[in-house]
Design goal:
13 helices, 2 domains, about 15% strand, binds pyridoxal-5'-phosphate, Aspartate Aminotransferase, domain 2, Aspartate Aminotransferase, domain 1
Amino acid sequence: MNKQHPFTISAQAGGHDGAVADVAPVLHMTSTYLRGADNVPMDHRNIYGRDQNDTVRHVEAVIAHLEQAAEALVFPSGMAAIAAVLRTFRPGQTVLIQSGIYWGTTHWVRDHCAQWGIHLIEADLSQTNSFPACHPDLVFLEIPSNPWLKVADIKSVRSQYPNACLVVDSTAATPIVSRPLSFGADIVVHSATKAMSGHSDLLAGALACKTPDDRWVKIAQDRQGAGAILGAFEAWLLLRSLRTLPVRVVQMCKNAQDLAERLEKHPHVQGVYYPGLIEHPQHAVARVQMEHGFGYLMSILVQGGRQAALDTLARLQVFQRATSLGGVESLVEHRHTIEPHTGIPENLLRLSIGIEHVDDLWHDLDQALRGSHA
Ligand SMILES: Cc1ncc(COP(=O)(O)O)c(C=O)c1O
């Protein structure tokens, strides 16, 4: 068969399991598996639910296919997936992590490296002219970054650090928009809690690898041993969501691009961070690394400072005030409230754009911005 387009892979989500002619993926709810009277497992692939479940295998196969990866592994959250990678590095090794990424990742990685004697370097890896001179064992990028929307150039990072394990968190892109492995990443990470599941109703994480090397085998063994497996029901919900991933993501990106272009000209907006804007400092890189749009996440700086931003937040009626991103409903968050010590501007609002009609989103933002400046 010809190589399938990601839209087709998603829509069919691996199809039926072949056993009973289902069109939709089957949910296998079992924690253990039968052995025969001879004490031999009746199905050699299935012994115990902590490592073996066909619904989990099914969603992993779809994610691997979407990422053009050799294999994928799912986890109970995005952080569990990130932690699984970090835990394969040893005391004395060096981790280089992009600065200004999801605060939960930075915070956990700092603690983990301090505890385990791992040398940690943080740098703005979207700036190709100021890559730190070092020999990292791991380089960790987030593209686009949350909430600054920076777009690191994966190929440049790869050639600067040829011997490092290069990991890209592609949560705010999804495999519909970007496939980091094709630009030189070794492992791609997703918080599948976000757009991959897309309905703000489950927590999940995923890793996909270019090559199932020794590190990958260690990650898989640790997941089994330490028990960080995604439940079958969540795996099934994720599969169900993946079937509509392209239509959701394309619509979210379209809305986001439209809003970013309108917000850029709004009299009460001081700045818009969105890689789809020509003025974005890494727009050229984004054009190479992204397709079908530039993601569903953006940040705006509200004219007038902290109070004006909080007033705007309070007046929004269609956008819902909540943390997280990637759902079909648009969300807004004042990030400085969550991470006051990381240099986030006090007038920054992070917007996760959903699939609502763009005019409703625009009118909501416009009335809230105008109302807060009346
Ligand atoms: C870019 C990014 N990566 C990882 C995570 C962590 O994902 P989870 O909440 O599923 O653990 C988040 C959460 O917001 C995120 O935004």
